[in-house]
């Protein structure tokens, strides 16, 4: 099996397929993603989320903010299972969604844990990390604000944030409050979308 042009092992494929089955079952009673995207689950959500690990395929510690239906946090945790190292801390304050995330991690033997708390409270509960991810959560300025407790003064901590066609405006807005190094990774799934890699974060105001 290939996702985004990269080969996926049979073990990871089985885990992803089991996650997809679970997701479809839970999505009948919980609003995990926009209903209009459910019929395109593999491309719009699983393949899109897989890009995070494909960009940075290392056995590291992640914090996934606003994990919702598991994108990209559970998908990253599934890939880490193959490495038998690394960990994803999934932050989701909605308790029904948190229950789904716990079930998904357990049944796929993925490498992650769920923190059913507000994002603002997460730094006190979760220690240092190597990377932060978020998808469909907030604009870039807001995401950096959420991530600052982990990233400020930490040269090796990076943020990986999915963004759509309006990402240039979001970058300009964020640069009014922050300095950071930026890499733009073009999406292999959505033509006008990117994954923004943020590092060396400094506060301006």
Short recap of the structure:
Specifically methylates the N7 position of guanine in position 527 of 16S rRNA. The protein is 40% helix and 23% strand.
Q: Could you name the key traits of this structure?
A:
alpha/beta; Rossmann fold; 205 residues; 9 strands; 40% helix; two-stranded antiparallel sheet; seven-stranded mixed β-sheet
Could you please describe the fold and organization of this structure?
The structure is a single chain. The chain has 205 residues and is an alpha/beta fold. The chain has one domain (2-203): Vaccinia Virus protein VP39 (Rossmann fold), CATH 3.40.50.150. The protein contains seven helices and nine strands, in the order ββααβαβαβαβαβαββ. The protein has helices spanning 10-26, 41-55, 73-83, 95-108, 122-125, 140-151, 167-174; strands spanning 2-3, 6-7, 61-65, 87-91, 112-115, 131-134, 158-163, 178-186, 194-203. A seven-stranded mixed sheet has the order 5-4-3-6-7-9-8, with helices on both faces. A two-stranded antiparallel ribbon has the order 1-2. Strand 1 and strand 2 form a beta hairpin. 39% of the residues are buried. The model has no long low-confidence stretch (mean pLDDT 93). One of its GO terms (molecular function) is rRNA (guanine-N7-)-methyltransferase activity. Belongs to the methyltransferase superfamily. RNA methyltransferase RsmG family. It comes from Rhizobium chutanense.
């Amino acid at each position: 099996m290939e996702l985004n042009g990269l080969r996926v092992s049979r073990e990871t494929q089985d885990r992803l397929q089991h996650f997809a089955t679970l997701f479809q079952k839970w999505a009948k009673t919980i609003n995990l993603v926009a209903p209009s995207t459910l019929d395109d689950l593999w491309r719009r959500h699983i393949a899109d989320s897989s890009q995070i690990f494909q960009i940075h395929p290392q056995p590291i510690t992640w914090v996934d903010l606003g994990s919702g239906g598991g994108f990209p946090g559970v998908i990253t945790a599934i890939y880490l299972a193959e490495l038998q190292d690394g960990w994803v801390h999934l932050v989701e304050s909605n308790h029904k969604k948190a229950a789904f995330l716990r079930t998904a991690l357990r049944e796929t033997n993925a490498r992650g844990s769920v923190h059913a708390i507000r994002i603002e409270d997460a730094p006190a509960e979760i220690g240092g990390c190597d990377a932060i991810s978020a998808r469909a959560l907030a604009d870039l300025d807001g995401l950096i604000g959420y991530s600052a407790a982990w990233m400020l003064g930490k040269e090796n901590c990076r943020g990986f944030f999915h963004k759509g066609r309006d990402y240039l405006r979001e970058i300009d807005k964020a640069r009014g409050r922050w300095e950071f190094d930026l890499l733009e990774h073009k999406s292999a799934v959505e033509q006008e979308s990117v994954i923004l890699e943020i590092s060396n974060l400094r506060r301006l105001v």
